């Protein structure tokens, strides 16, 4: 992995005597290696980019939005859950300075598979019964608020269960109490392929996609609008800009992946068994254009790969990515203009 040296110059005071005048100088150099982020392809400090990220389950109904800490996520997944609402999973590597992250909600089994694709430590507060078989087998490092009180805290500005939050100190307390490694395994190369440095993916032969409307999610009706000046997509939901509550800034991204997925209902309560393994079709959207893609996995716990019409694995533009899990029978409610 290509590394760059970033030099921070602090506390400069020069000591010398020249023509009867004395000037004091003292210099101190702070050096930290820069590495390429596995989440965004951007240069980040090694202490951030070589630490396993957290993948946090977030509420996304009117009680749970806006969320805190989402502006720092390198990747965000959105998928439907029971009751017609969606939940988000924010994959965050740079969380040390976040005052709070959340609100943290309960696990669904398919999100376990998505989190594992990034070798992330999965943060959730409880779970649907169908996820217990994976959590009980300890197949993924996870911080469960029902059994691990030191990883989360409650706030008073929202009512339960929408007021469970975490931050760097609480995350570290939980991770250390369970003895999880925060280092990527040897040989880890990341999830995505990114455009080479100094280049960009423009999808010149793609269809127009300056507006991406996801009316398949009928509760929050999210959409993305492309800004040609910033080359980013701005996110909206509930008829308003979707913001990070901590900063008030609207969420943006450089890449959108629509992953069309099959599913079955687990029970009459609406719990979904979303197929994360069998593969399917979708769209890759960036720089105001969209192309058809297919996706596949080589195993249940493997990584999802996305391919263009020529069978080549796609490259993403460096920056943030939203992955939208669209159920196969609702693809017709997605609009690209």
TrEMBL record:
Q: What range does the record give for the signal peptide?
A: 1-27
**Sorted alphabetically, which SUPFAM superfamilies does this protein's record hold?**
YerB-like (SSF159774)
Highest taxon listed in the record's lineage: Bacteria
Keyword Transferase found? no
Q: Does the keyword Transferase apply?
A: no
Query: What InterPro entries does its record include?
Result: DUF3048_C (IPR035328), DUF3048_N (IPR021416), YerB-like_sf (IPR023158)
Q: Which Gene3D superfamilies match?
A: YerB-like
What keywords appear on the UniProt entry? Signal
DUF3048 domain sequence ranges: 39-180, 217-323
Name recorded for this polypeptide:
DUF3048 domain-containing protein
Query: What organism is listed for this UniProt entry?
Result: Blautia segnis
């Amino acid at each position: 992995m290509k590394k760059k040296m970033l030099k921070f110059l602090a506390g400069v005071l020069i000591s010398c005597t020249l023509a009867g005048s004395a000037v004091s100088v003292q210099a101190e150099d702070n050096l930290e290696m820069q590495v390429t982020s596995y989440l965004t392809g951007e240069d980040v400090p090694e202490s951030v980019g070589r630490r396993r990220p957290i993948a946090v389950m977030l509420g996304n109904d009117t009680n749970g939005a806006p969320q805190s800490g989402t502006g720092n996520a390198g990747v965000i997944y959105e998928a439907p859950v029971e009751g017609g609402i969606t939940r988000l999973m924010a994959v965050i590597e740079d969380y040390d300075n976040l005052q709070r992250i959340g609100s943290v909600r309960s696990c669904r089994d398919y999100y376990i598979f998505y989190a594992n694709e990034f070798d992330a430590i999965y943060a959730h507060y409880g779970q649907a019964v169908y996820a217990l078989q994976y959590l009980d087998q300890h197949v993924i490092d996870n911080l469960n608020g029902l059994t691990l009180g030191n990883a989360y805290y409650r706030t008073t500005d929202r009512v339960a269960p929408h007021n469970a939050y975490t931050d760097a100190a609480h995350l570290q307390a939980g991770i250390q109490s369970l003895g999880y490694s925060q280092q990527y395994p040897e040989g880890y190369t990341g999830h995505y392929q990114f455009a080479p440095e100094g280049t960009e993916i423009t999808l010149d032969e793609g269809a127009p996609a300056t507006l991406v409307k996801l009316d398949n999610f009928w509760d929050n009706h999210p959409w993305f609008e492309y800004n040609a000046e910033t080359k980013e997509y701005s996110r909206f939901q509930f008829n308003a800009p979707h913001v990070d509550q901590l900063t008030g800034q609207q969420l943006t991204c450089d890449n959108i992946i629509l992953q069309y997925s099959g599913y079955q209902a687990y029970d009459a309560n609406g719990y979904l068994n979303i197929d994360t393994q069998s593969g399917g079709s979708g769209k890759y959207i960036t720089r105001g254009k969209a192309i058809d893609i297919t996706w596949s996995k080589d195993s249940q716990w493997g990584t999802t790969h996305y391919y263009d019409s020529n069978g080549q694995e796609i490259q993403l533009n460096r920056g943030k990515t939203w992955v939208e899990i669209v159920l196969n029978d609702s693809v017709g409610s997605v609009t690209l203009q």
